[in-house]
Write a structure and sequence with these properties.
The protein is mainly α and about 190 residues long. It has 9 helices and no strands. The chain folds into 2 domains: about 1-40, Orthogonal Bundle (Arc Repressor Mutant, subunit A); about 45-185, Tetracycline Repressor, domain 2, CATH 1.10.357.
Length: about 190
Amino acid sequence: MDAIFEATIQVLISEGTHRLTTTRVAERAGVSVGTMYQYFPHKQALLYALNERYLDRLAERVETACLAQHGQSTGKMVEALVAAYWDAKTERSDVTRALYSSAVELDNEALIGAFAKRMDAATMAMLRSAPMANYVNLDLVNVTLLSVIFGTVRNVFERNLPISEQMTIREQLTTMCLSYLERSGG
């Protein structure tokens, strides 16, 4: 399965979503077309599975980072959260870009919903453990915080900003999120 997913990524990056076919992926992965159809009856099924795998791995990284920060200061929590999400997205930025562009072809509401639930649970548990934190509406604070982080990272990718500018934005994002949490009771 890993070979099929990696081949899909390679085709997405080199040829784009519009030229992705299960036949091209099978050739690149070195598997028969019949094997491809056994697992993925069409292109959308393949893209859905690839996005599901990507979001699962992303969620695992953020969950691990959040769990490691329980009981730490809000500043350390924010730094770890931003770093975990940012690093996961930029580790293979070409893959992230390709998956962003491929997602438009999918009905991925269920994927995004499951990912959001995992992120909400991990970050809210982390924020609840912050010493002296007293959020009046943690649900709202959390969804705002995650929206800012996720939206900023996506914007950086869509603009294809230079690395030096990306690093500056990452630092500013951490500062902005920490200021927001402090003002919101953290």
